[in-house]
From TrEMBL:
Protein name: LemA family protein
Membrane topology of this protein: Single-pass membrane protein
Transmembrane segments: 6-26
Compartments, as annotated in UniProt: Membrane
SUPFAM superfamilies xref list: LemA-like
Leader peptide range in chain numbering: none
Ranges where the record places region Disordered: 200-229
Keywords: Membrane, Transmembrane, Transmembrane helix
One Pfam family named in its UniProt record: LemA
Keyword Metal-binding set for record: no
Main location, first listed in the record: membrane
Transcription in keyword set: no
Length: 229
């Protein structure tokens, strides 16, 4: 009788431990999933703000005389695809943002040729806001991908993989771009510094140009003073 009771107690203890372990792993999966979804919503908010800033940049740039309309058209089209990708998931959003990054790189390269545009206060303000937005997106992307990595690792390991299958959890998508050339957001800091460099004055005809810290090869000779009478 005592042996039967001990066996029953052992079985009950094993069942309780198994149920407790299953519940703990399930709850951890649920918390990780919610953290991933929340971190993605933060990225999505910043992406929407970024798209609004890009739209404003395009409108300000339209006022620049003879600004290349093909460049603006590519930015507008890429922005439209990125806006349409909202809700399609991190992978699809990453591909759309990759194309938008490429269009923005061309846009800022062309903008360097328009001093009147880069001197515009609205353009400069939007440029600063873009830099801050890109920084927040980069930080959010690192946080999101770190959570996805931890979640997917547990999904692939035993025994948590059994809990993931039983709880109908699925792997999460990373938010990244495939092209290493645009993996980082466009760098706007110092993009127009060349336009603000001081211009070296052109010397009169027949005189050599003197640069700071150098001497001309044939410096002009000072005529000798006349002898005292």
């Amino acid at each position: 009788m005592d042996a039967v009771l001990v066996t029953v107690l052992l079985v009950v203890a094993v069942v309780v431990i198994a149920v407790g372990a299953f519940t703990a792993m399930y709850n951890k999966f649920a918390r990780q999933r919610n953290t991933i979804e929340e971190s993605w919503r933060q990225i999505d908010v910043e992406l929407q703000r970024r798209h609004d800033l890009i739209g404003n940049l395009v409108e300000v740039s339209r006022a620049a005389a003879r600004f290349e309309q093909d460049t603006l058209a590519r930015v507008v089209q890429a922005r439209g695809r990125a806006v349409a990708a909202h809700g399609a998931g991190p992978a699809a959003q990453g591909q759309a943002e990759q194309q938008l990054n490429g269009a923005l790189a061309s846009f800022f390269a062309v903008a360097e040729q328009y001093p009147t545009l880069t001197a515009n206060q609205n353009f400069r303000y939007l440029q600063e806001q873009m830099v801050e937005c890109e920084d927040r997106i980069a930080a959010g992307r690192r946080f999101y991908n770190g959570n996805v990595r931890a979640f997917n690792t547990r999904f692939d390991t035993f025994p948590s993989s059994l809990v993931a299958s039983a709880g109908k959890f699925g792997k999460k998508e990373y938010y990244e771009v495939d092209d290493p050339g645009v993996r980082a957001a466009p760098a706007l800091h110092g993009a127009f510094d060349l336009l603000n460099e001081p211009v070296t004055p052109t010397p009169p005809l027949g005189q050599p140009m003197i640069q700071h810290g150098t001497m001309p090869e044939n410096p002009p000779q000072t005529p000798p003073a006349p002898p005292l009478q």
